Amino acid sequence: MKKNIILKLLLIPLISANVFTIISLLSGFNYYADIICNFAFQFFIIQFICLLFTSNKYKKTALISLFIMLLNLYQIIPLYFSHDNFTEDSKKNSLSIIQLNIYRDNKDYPSVKRLLDKYKPDIFLINELCPDAATYFSKELTDYKLKKLIPRNDFFGVGIFSKIDIKVKDLYLKKTSTPIINADFKFDNNDYSIYFTHLASPETKTMFDNRTAQLQELTHIVKTNNNRIIIAGDFNLTSYSSYFKRFIKNTSLKYSRKGFGLQNSWPTFTPIFRICLDHFFISPEIKVLDRKVLEPIGSDHFPVLLYLSK
């Protein structure tokens, strides 16, 4: 009797995960569906666990749930395949980039400095850069000979520190006046362009529409640049979103996370709800040697490290 009650109770999260997964399929048409779709991995875990216990007793429900669960798995599996081969020696001649959303109110700047001293990236990209952080890192990051900082008191300050020669200019997304740092440089006799920004968080329908407009503007920027492209930043959307997939398709860029797994980067404080918001998109001819989510530094985001081949 007690076992039957437990099995019936397990149907509640199972059916709920099924319903949310179906709603997620409408992410390209509905604001709420696009928010829900970000948790495809969590829905998959719920479905998998519940099916382990309920499939024998509730066979019809289990069969339907299995099919719906596979819809989530279909989006997760590609993240574990199709990356470029690398060795530890190849990293020595690579281009390394760390991007970090430091969180505007995080004052643990020494932890960030220790992280950079440990991994020694060629380029450091920082989001949510406030004036205090800009002052600290300008003084402390002496290994970086070139920099461009756009500190702000809101959540959209950005900055770049570089050990290699770069030509930097700042752009602004027309819809929201959100800054983008554009850095051009040569690497292995090829011309590269980095674009680094922080897109709007879709907390309201208006902000959701702003993010959509920002993605469209970024698409236009990519299409008008013949250099090898690296786009980085906190995009406030995941790879499960229709808008994310549309951006990949329209720009013909490669997603750096493929082959390296989930690599969820936000939030640091609740692992069960963790998703990937911090992304690198690169031109197809660029090889990704390695991609890592690094240790926490006091922010609600984890830093992300990328190694690119010469």
Automatic annotation (TrEMBL):
Q: Does the keyword Transit peptide apply?
A: no
The family database entries (Pfam families) matched by this protein are listed as: Exo_endo_phos (PF03372)
Q: Where are the transmembrane segments?
A: 7-26, 32-54, 61-81
> Which residue intervals define the domain Endonuclease/exonuclease/phosphatase in the entry?
99-301
Coiled-coil region list:
none
Keyword Transmembrane helix set for record: yes
Q: List UniProt keywords, sorted A-Z.
A: Membrane, Transmembrane, Transmembrane helix
MF terms in GO? catalytic activity
| Descriptive protein name | Endonuclease/exonuclease/phosphatase domain-containing protein
Highest classification ranks of the organism? Bacteria, Candidatus Muiribacteriota, Candidatus Muiribacteriia, Candidatus Muiribacteriales, Candidatus Muiribacteriaceae
